[in-house]
Specification:
Layout: E1 3-7, H1 12-23, E2 29-32, H2 37-47, E3 54-57, E4 60-63, H3 67-76
Parallel strand pairs: 1-2
Antiparallel strand pairs: 1-3, 3-4
Amino acid sequence: MKVVIYSTPTCPYCLQAKSYFESKNIDYTNIDVSTDQKAAQEMVDLSGQMGVPVITINDKVVIGFDKSKIEALLISNE
């Protein structure tokens, strides 16, 4: 399973998402869009959103820390 979080260091929902994945022992890649303009554009292209977090789980996009959607995607990818 491939999990990617597009985030910023000061975003509380980003921190919640990372904490959630860590509590479930799920490896994820964190991409700080505040320092990587190319990644920020990639995030907008994927989601149509400027806000963070944007999370991808096996290329399925979740906008924000939508715990129920994240859990559904994690279960379907086990």
